[in-house]
Amino acid sequence: MQTAALTFDDGPDGDGHTDAVLDALKAAGVKATFFVNANNYCDVTTAPCKATLARISAEGHPVADHTYDHPHLDTLTNAQIATEFSSVDADVGQAMTVSLSDLTCCAIVHFQT
Ligand SMILES: [Zn+2]
Questions:
Q1: Class of 31-106 per CATH?
Q2: Cα(28) to centroid of ligand 1, in Å?
């Protein structure tokens, strides 16, 4: 038996792309991990974005930290990088109405050369 892991980065968005992905995953009966930003394509403290984030969680997909607003980390200090990862949890956790410990703890670091 072969296994594949699906991941989606940079969401949620406010224009339906994340919802379309969720629709396809639901139709296929599979789960994916969503590496989300707190404020990238939309702000997770706003209603439409919060609803999409809540849907990701409600449908059983793991959610992981992909920085607050998706900066190029190679332009930041170590302290700024730490803040990027620590600050996303508060807004995302609040939007999902889950405790922070329920968030999958992973970080994909975005460096550009
Ligand atoms: Zn990304």
A1: alpha beta
A2: 24
Q: Are the beta carbons of 37 and 70 closer than 8 angstroms?
A: yes
Q: Model-level pTM? A: 0.82
**Cα–Cα dist 69/40, whole Å:** 5
110 CA from centroid of ligand 1 (Å): 7
Using the CB atoms, write b or e for 11-30: b if 16+ within 10 Å: bbbbeeebbebbeebeeeee
Q: What is the pLDDT of residues 57-113, one digit of tens each?
A: 889 898 888 889 999 888 999 999 888 888 877 777 777 655 444 555 554 444 444
Q: Would you say 42 and 13 are in contact if contact means Cβ atoms under 8 Å apart? A: yes
Q: List the domain boundaries for the chain.
A: 31-106
Cα of 10 from ligand 1 centre, angstroms: 5
Angle in degrees, 0-180, between the axes of helices 78-96 and 47-58, rounded to the nearest 10: 80
